[in-house]
Write a structure and sequence with these properties.
Layout (H helix, E strand, L loop, with lengths): L12 H15 L4 H8 L3 H8 L7 H11 L8 H10 L6 H8 L4 E6 L10 H13 L5 H18 L6 E7 L1 H4 L5 H15 L4 E6 L13 E5 L5 E6 L4 E4 L2 H17 L3 H12 L4
Parallel strand pairs: 1-2, 2-3
Antiparallel strand pairs: 1-4, 4-5, 5-6
Helix pairs in contact: 1-5, 2-3, 4-5, 5-6, 7-8, 10-12
Length: 279
Amino acid sequence: MSNIKTLHPENGPAAAYGARVRSTREERGWTQEDLADRTGYSSKHISAVETSRRSSTLRFSQVLDVAFGLTGSDDAFEREWMKLRHGVLLEGFPEYVHHERRAVEVRLFEIGIVPGLLQTPEYAHAMAYGDVRRNSITSAQADERCAVLAKRQAEVLGDRTPVTHVVIDESCIRRPVGGPSVMGAQLDRLLEFAELPHTTLQVAPYAIGERRPFNLPVHVLTLADRSMLSYTESYTQGHLARETTTVTAILTAYYQLQAESLSQADSMAMIREVRKAYP
């Protein structure tokens, strides 16, 4: 027992994550070797994560969830990893994603970049590695970000596709990302998305000016029990809201945005026109 290192979860998110791995393991009466047998990772690896000498990964978190029986739950280590990876910049986002995969209706508005759910892998890669070049994340973190997005796309837009309404600011299609071939393929992806059953896609043109009600990305979900929640995000913080007054106000503004935006037919015409500039 004297060789067991004292943990200090107050030292930061990674330390708190590692301490939770140990406490969850010990609650089940498992040694590190027992958990190693159940996960396929070495006991040395598990020890390093528990003591925060090694960072966790998405895959390791998912394997932990399988071993502990936490997959898809509010206590899932995958959700903990997302909080650890994104930090305060995306506070509330892991919880939003948890509900998004169960939503029956999704409404999105984005400025400047194509919404994550609609991004091609190449576009997502270009965005993530832009952050790498700015030295705000590592290449490993960029790869993990892309993996999280791919999983999210599969869960939301896979076999169980909810009714999905998307409004994108004109800047999303005018701002070139990743070079001509990447941007051309991304515009094609938007056109394909608009043709899917249960989807709508509109462009909010520059011309609506001050009539655009949002200056930040907005997400609104309707769940199976008809309850709703919203998620809004700035550069430094995200906010998940369940209060009826808040969500209703955002939903009303979203309807106003849709009314001011181009019809889907006119939106597709604009995207096709922009597409002509790319090979």
